[in-house]
Amino acid sequence: MKATELVGKTKDELVTKLTDLKKEQFNLRFQKATGQLENTARVRQVRRDIARVRSALGQSAVAKRA
């Protein structure tokens, strides 16, 4: 996911995306703990995607205040 994909989304869409990513991160942690994780790079991708969504949420909040 790129940051440009998040620019046009509404706050509700971003919150939904964040929730989905957090669930995926939770599942990946369980897979890692049980030794079933095949794509270890996905953990890093999900973590960075969560940061991108949080940044987009923060930027939209600041833009609304201004």
TrEMBL record:
Gene3D superfamilies: 1.10.287.310. Pfam families: Ribosomal_L29. It comes from the Bacteria. InterPro entries: Ribosomal_protein_uL29, Ribosomal_uL29, Ribosomal_uL29_CS, Ribosomal_uL29_sf. Keywords: Ribonucleoprotein, Ribosomal protein. NCBIfam families: L29. GO terms for cellular component: ribosome. Transmembrane segments: none annotated. PANTHER family: 60S RIBOSOMAL PROTEIN L35/50S RIBOSOMAL PROTEIN L29, LARGE RIBOSOMAL SUBUNIT PROTEIN UL29C. Belongs to the universal ribosomal protein uL29 family. It comes from Ferrovibrio xuzhouensis. This is Large ribosomal subunit protein uL29.
